[in-house]
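Show me any protein, keeping tokens residue-aligned.
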Amino acid sequence: MLALVAYLESARKNVIWIYEVGSANATSLADTEGAIFPFWSPDSRTVAFFADGKLKKVERSGGPVQIVCDAPAGRGGTWNKDGVIVFTPEALVGPGRGLYRVPASGGTPVRISDPDMSRGQQNHRWPVFLPDGKHYLYLAANFSGRKGANAVFAGSLDSNEKRLVVDATANVAYVSAGYLLFPREKILFAQKFDIKRLALTGEPTPILTDLQYQPQIHRAVFAVSDDGLLVAQTGTGVALSQPIWFDRKGNEVGKIGKPNVYQNIFLSPNGRSVAVDIADMGSENMNSDVWTLDLQRDSARRLTFPPSNQVLPVWSPDASRTVFSSNRETNFNLYMKNSDGTQDEKSIAGINSLNNFPEDWSRDGKYILYTGDRELMLLTFPDLQSTLFLKSPSDLKNAQFSPDGRWVAYASNETGKWEVYVTSFPDARGKWQISIIGGDQPRWRGDGKELFYLSSDYKMMAVPVTTGSKFDAGTPVALFQATPRQPISTNDRFVYDVSRDGQRFLINTQVINAETQPMSIILNWAAKLNK
């Protein structure tokens, strides 16, 4: 039995499918829209997965989806026979981004590992239990371009011991025949593994080449069972997209640039340029850099060059500067650079939380709104002093100032699904829910009379609003069905922006599907080791 994530046309999102090897068809599981990285219970009756910033579970035969706990950006989990789940709740890098344990029945997660910053570890992910149900393997990952920093370690629920097992670039798997399967970029190796000593023996043997590998998240697409079955995806798996203009009826009215791996769309306040981050296809980890695209000249300018990730470029009100986030110093932090490229970027000092991502810059130029750890923070400009604006027990993202500066729209998953809310500014008093059955990525019309967002099935929604001294919102109306590129990393936060008059939408649209290879099913893969 195989649980996999694939696109469901009616949901306009990925869902979990159950496929019995050898059968002609697969069955989708209801209410698993947006699911990522599913894993099985020990008895194979239940599938756990991540969606809407939560760790969830559902019976293989169907039934209601249950929330286990919060998981803002899950990166893998494993479930033992004692009913303990070990998982990675957050993909963001930095201290504390380690593994957690939680009862499969639900509860408060407890951290059981911390990345070793001296080794260049930024995150622990893709855990897998060994047969004793106590020891587990996991990937210690680095995303800032540091060579040789990615490796697999063994840990235990009973101690703090962490033991290096092997250098690897992605997730690993253990089979009861006594082998460890691990990838190094696009080659899958198998090697004898002594579970008592937690050590490899002998030499590694390549068993599959051209393995699909996603360097942005250090994930290789394969699974293996104890009965000799290996399932893997080959090919690049790169989904190209392009910023495309649509009118309010969903008609395509123009394209920008050429197909590439785009993330995050931010129109300049004067409407002449768009800032994006674009993945470097030639780099080892497909790191992203900030680019600006001139809409009048149809030209592009690269703004950043470090061998790390530069994401989420936000314009100043006069379009002379951009603020973006970079992990060049291990954690994601805020940097500023002139949008014409005439100055080197500079770090914005005085911000101490683990990871920071810019959201918006107020029209009067006085405030930069950014997200920290379940917080919306304000950075005053030009003195660069940081203060708390809004703290939440749930996750926050997509915060946007209203044009008059009196309100802030944002998305939160406090109900178990992402919804759009509005609160007052400069003091966060009161809360109005804007979306009804799921939504995120709010954007204001230039005059503040309309608020847009994407529904959970990617419909472009419009809501009439009244701003000023009081706020009021009407009923959301679906304008058209969008088809944005599916997010890959936690840095994919804004797939669209809207013109100031609210008549056109620039959407990072999937325009070329990757050359998809069918899943490869290999029976008795271990026979290769004896040749």
Remarks:
- The first strand starts at residue 2 and ends at 8.
